[in-house]
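Hey team,

Sharing the 6-carboxy-5,6,7,8-tetrahydropterin synthase run so nobody has to redo it. Sequence (293 residues) first:
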Amino acid sequence: MLLFVDDLTVIDCSYLCAERGIVGESWIVDIELDGSLNEQSMVLDFGRVKKQIKAIIDRSVDHKLLVPSGHAFTQVTHSADDESHWVDFMRPEGRSIHLFCPAEAFAYIDAEKVDALTVTDYLRAVIKRELPGNVQGLRLSLRPEAIDGFYYHYTHGLKKHDGNCQRIAHGHRSKIQIALDNIRQPVLEKQWSERWEDIYIGSEEDKVEIKRLQRSESAKQISEATHVGYSYVADQGLFELMVPKSENDFIDSDSTVECIAEFIAAQIKQTHPEQRVKVKAFEGVGKGAIAYA
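Structure output:
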């Protein structure tokens, strides 16, 4: 007997990619369970699927940085108490990426690259360990939202958030809709999707001189000539990041989706002062903020 739940949850995360850098991603999760009926004449109660399995997925990969531990660029160093990790992703030509974060901010995918298939394999192994004995089979499907229009992949961190959004390198794959005087503007939407393609959006107040960061030996070669440094302390601990300048953009506020929508609207207003600007900025799938200028 097969039990299925479509749209079980959405994974909002970021991952390290040799070509693209830090990539913000949003995957919709569908699940099928294959098993015999239990004493309740069910494979598994839907409430338990939606609560227990979603919780496993959330704590395993959601709002984390997914690291391809099998890639030659990946270097991981543990602090003495193992509560924090240095992750160095040694891309060449001044494009390396360096982090120092609490261990729970990372998920290590045992593969040369992170994609929907390798994350599916990782999650399947984690979930199977916690399923009841009557469930023999498990199928997961991770899929991007079907978007008819423009979108960008962005990564950020929200130090003031009391949940997992405080992690400095998590992200989203997000639609962008822009209107002038209530008329959609695909040219502007395309411009922003290109500006923020695979981008790290940082807050100006979190910028820190690189020499002040908790650098690993591999990161000591990095300087302001090629990289931007960020650091902040949140409830979960100290978060630090060094990202290539070419893959970074700043806003002068927090990088919540509300502030992102306001930032885009204000930028567009500068070049279209006589028109009413509306920006509908998404944060992942089916949620976001609308700003006017």
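The longest strand covers residues 2-17.

Ping me if you want the raw files.
A.
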